[in-house]
Amino acid sequence: MDVIETNEMKKKYSVLCVDDSISQLERYKADLSPFYELIFAKNYNEALSSLTTLKPDVVLLDINLPGMDGFQVLSLLYEQIQIFNTSVLMVSSNSDSFSIEKAFIHGASDYIKKPYNRIELLLRIGSHIRSKEIKSENIQNKLEIEKIKKKSRETINYTKDSMVFTLSELAKIRDNETGEHLNRIKSYTKYLIEKLALTSKYEKYFSNDDIDDIFCMSILHDIGKIGISDNILKKPGKLTFDEFEVMKTHSVIGGEILENAYKHYTNFNFLKVGKDIALYHHEKWNGTGYPLGLKGEEIPVAARIVAIVDVFDALVSKRIYKVAYSKADTFTIIKEERGRHFDPYIFDVFFEYKDKFIEIGKRVSYE
Ligand SMILES: [Fe+2]
């Protein structure tokens, strides 16, 4: 291996010349050294060493090497060539179409026939270097765009978290149900949607942002209760029919709060997700829920998920109007609602991991 330093300024690009013929290497030196930093290799081992350590921009590879021919060398170097985005120009006195085709099949970027024309060789090397530069620029641009997108996502998430935190604090003050209930709903929803995203039906349905928006906004499912009067919201014992009718309006109130916010900030999809959850989390799969009596998949999926975990938590928790149900009773009651109250597909995923939901509930603690 021999690196030729020129008498001029250090050259920006380098070319690895692989040939067992000293006279050919001398010719490369004469033709290319005024323009490129040159690296010489006479066989595969020297070529591999130069490629991995010096990362040349272009490789000129002779086909007729002793022992291992140029095609075999190219096959063995293929991985490094891809990693370093290096163009390999096969150089050979063979001008048959079979050799040319074989060179491209093995991963060569170009084929130069010997004896080559010096200007043509320079132009072709220049062209491959330009292609490499464009490719690198594109990769760089993509990385920059990704960086900007990541920053923007972080800002949106920060805004979302602060807004959700503020609203949930407000909800906690007005509602008898404590922060633990809201935290449990969030934890159940996160677990359920992650398991759902592994199923055949939903594996390509949710983006990471969707998952994050749904479990984050689930905590605000009952935000509309801030609009329900204390004598109903905090009443110990069962509500009358009329009182319950008033209580039911919490879904519409919550939906309106978040829908109005979304109308002003349409870039924030989490507000729309929040509206769907708040407005529709009491809809039922069979169409007997409220406020609109939506049926089946008319009900947004986020609301169908929260509906299950909300009822589950209500059953296993102690409330001012009821005692906590046992684990066995909870699952007996909730299973009866499969296909009635709950989306059967989502419910089956929930039920498959039912013990995990008990465990999550205990971790966040029941009231
Ligand atoms: Fe509710």
CATH superfamily of the largest domain: Hypothetical protein af1432
Strand order of the largest sheet: 1-3-2-4-5-6
Mean pLDDT: 90
**Portion in strands:** 5-15%
List the helices and strands and how they pair.
Elements (H helix, E strand, L loop, with lengths): L1 E3 L9 E5 L3 H11 L4 E5 L2 H11 L3 E5 L7 H15 L2 E6 L4 H9 L4 E4 L4 H57 L4 H18 L11 H10 L12 H4 L7 H8 L1 H15 L4 H12 L20 H16 L10 H9 L8 H9 L1 H11 L3
Parallel strand pairs: 2-3, 2-4, 4-5, 5-6
Antiparallel strand pairs: 1-3
In brief, what are we looking at here?
The protein is of the alpha/beta class and 367 residues long.
Question: Can you tell me about this structure?
Answer:
It is a single chain. The protein has 367 residues and is an alpha/beta fold. It folds into 2 domains: 2-141, 3-Layer(aba) Sandwich (Rossmann fold); 175-364, Hypothetical protein af1432. 59% of the residues lie in helices and 8% in strands. It has 15 helices and 6 strands. It has helices at 22-32, 44-54, 70-84, 97-105, 118-174, 179-196, 208-217, 230-233, 241-248, 250-264, 269-280, 301-316, 327-335, 344-352, 354-364, and strands at residues 2-4, 14-18, 37-41, 58-62, 87-92, 110-113. Helix 3 links the parallel strand 4 (58-62) and strand 5 (87-92). The longest helix is centred in the middle third of the chain and has 57 residues, at 118-174. The chain starts with a strand and ends with a helix. Residues 1-9 have low confidence and may be disordered. Fe (ii) ion binds at residues 221-222, 250, 281-282.
